[in-house]
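Pair request: fold both.
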Amino acid sequence: MAYDVLKLKIKDKKLNYQKLAKELRISESGLNKKINGKNYFTQSEIYQLKELLELSNNELIEIFF
């Protein structure tokens, strides 16, 4: 997984972890663990991130697969 790309996309959209965690309906610490590769994003979270961050299909594949 390309966590650095994900972090860049979050920054580009001017989102902080608190706002993003709220959108995903998870805790900030849970989000932090997922962004740093300690836990995995669920399929529904990946879909929500695709929408929130306006990720292309190629970016989605690069980041999560």
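--- second member of the pair ---
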Amino acid sequence: MDRKQLIMEKALELFAKQGIESTSVQQITEYCGISKGAFYLTFKSKSELIEGIIDYFMTDIIFEVDRVVKHTSSNEDLLYLYYHTVFQTFQKHSDFAKLLVKEQAHPPNEEQLLKLAAYDEELGRLLETIVDKLYGGRIEHTKYDLIFSMKGFIKSYLELFIFFNAPINLDKLAKSLVEKTNILAENITIPFISSELKLLPPTDADPDKLVQMVQSKAASLDESLEKESLEILTEQLVNKTHPLAIIKGLITNISHHPDCKGVAFLLDKHFFK
């Protein structure tokens, strides 16, 4: 585990236990067993650390949902796999889920708010793809209400991870939400959210920042197939010399590494938008 990931994971444990405001950089460095100097070589501030945590965990969630949308051939399974994947990923990152729920009473700063809004809209885009596949044009006038409700299901049931200590049956939860979603899809008659009220999707990542992100991730890895793939992808971002089939294969290589899912998602979006 590299230093950046160590700081994020240990800080997240502290944030989940005692809250963001009550956790100091000093406490984080002591918990990590590093110096303050090492912390500030990695993050300029606690605020930048929080933004890094949001990026790290939300890109993993979006990556997993995107994979479901792209690789599920059966519409019958798509909605179930969507809900199951979202909650399974939040369960895997339970400290992050706790942070999202517990810190709702403490508004994030503008930069953090923009990041959360961008990820929320990316999830909305994936949900729109799912809804279009499942219900087509017959709910065109109500689909944004349905998407808003589906996102509400996620936020509401996420509290189960915070307030209940008993094991959660993800299979039953996913099936229950599929049933609720289908009932809404077939019975909404008075939509409130229209295409005019729908927020615009997030802009693509800045190309220069994407190059820096890929270079940084490559530098953090030991010699491996993933590291070599990231280095080739960095060149491709600048020179665009390889065919898209090769780029797809390189992105697939890095997507199997647990620390590269976020970068894989952004690269896939960049090259295959």
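Observation on the second member. The chain has 14 helices and no strands.
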